[in-house]
């Protein structure tokens, strides 16, 4: 799960004091292997630095249930359609409406379009926090909803920079994942990774500035081919603690 880096000052691959190539952790995308090994029906994914505040616990739990309930409803609808297709039955108008709501073309190969892992991603209003957000993307795989991180965006491109700056929502990493298909069998999640979404990020290694190769991010390229739905959740569900000073923010002080 480690990757190589480029030593900017030396204009060479990053090496240790003995001249051997030095690797670094390849980012949270490596966790797709852990997720794949769980073999669970549903998994909640949340950033470790999003620290729950005691007096908000019940309200946060409610929104976790909302996301999970929606994910289960989507799974049931998806499974019913796939079963209908398997049995050669015509889809109902309600099922066609469900497909339209997910922006799935009724003339597409519905088996291929629907038979994949599913995720419901909570999103909050963008208030300037660093991190990714929900976007429509166009790749070789077609148009799809994706969580895109800043390093993936070419801010040298005026059009892309404008889209980034006009983003209305932010990804707090509050995701409910459905990992089994309509037969009750676990997906091989590695089949749904987009390897072309690896990216380069500026990092520091022992004081040296390096450009590090990062694996497709867990909620970015590692889930690129999942069925994806975004849901707005309240801002109080996101309370990041990046450093000790964040504990002095009003929310953590109970103000």
Tags for this entry?
255 residues, alpha+beta, 5-stranded mixed sheet, 4-stranded antiparallel sheet, 6 helices, 25% helix, 25% strand, globular
What would you say this structure looks like, in words?
- This protein is α+β, with helices and mostly antiparallel strands.
- It has one domain (2-253).
- The protein contains six helices and 13 strands.
- It has helices at 32-38, 57-86, 93-101, 110-114, 158-165, 250-253, and strands spanning 2-3, 5-7, 12-13, 24-25, 42-46, 118-125, 133-139, 142-148, 169-170, 174-178, 199-205, 208-214, 227-232.
- Strands 5, 6, 9, 10 and 13 form a five-stranded mixed beta sheet that branches. Strands 3-2-12-11 form a four-stranded antiparallel beta sheet, with no helix packed on it. The protein has a two-stranded antiparallel ribbon with strand order 1-4.
- The radius of gyration is 20 Å and the shape is globular.
- The N and C termini lie far apart (42 Å).
């Amino acid at each position: 799960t480690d990757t190589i880096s480029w030593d900017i000052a030396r204009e060479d691959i990053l090496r240790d004091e003995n001249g051997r190539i030095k690797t670094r952790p390849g980012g949270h995308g490596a966790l797709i292997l852990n997720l794949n090994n769980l073999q669970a029906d549903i998994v909640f994914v949340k950033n470790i630095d999003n620290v729950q505040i005691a007096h908000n616990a019940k309200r946060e739990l409610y929104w976790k249930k909302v996301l999970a309930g929606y994910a289960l409803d989507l799974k049931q609808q998806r499974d019913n359609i796939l079963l209908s297709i398997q049995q050669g039955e015509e889809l109902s108008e309600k099922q066609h409406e469900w497909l339209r709501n997910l922006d799935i073309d009724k003339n597409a190969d519905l088996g291929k379009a629907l038979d994949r892992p599913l995720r419901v991603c909570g999103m909050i209003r963008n208030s300037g926090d660093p991190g990714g957000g929900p976007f429509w993307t166009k790749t070789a795989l077609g148009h799809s909803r994706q969580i895109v991180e800043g390093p993936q965006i070419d801010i040298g491109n005026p059009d892309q920079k404008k889209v980034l700056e006009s983003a209305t929502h932010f990804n707090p990493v509050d995701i409910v994942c459905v990992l089994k298909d309509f037969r009750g069998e676990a997906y091989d999640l590695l089949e749904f990774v987009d390897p072309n979404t690896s990216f380069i990020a500026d990092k520091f290694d022992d004081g040296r500035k390096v450009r590090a190769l990062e694996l497709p991010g867990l909620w970015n390229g590692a889930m690129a081919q999942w069925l994806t739905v975004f849901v707005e959740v309240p801002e109080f569900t996101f309370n990041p603690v990046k450093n000790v000073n964040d504990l002095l923010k009003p929310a953590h002080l109970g103000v």
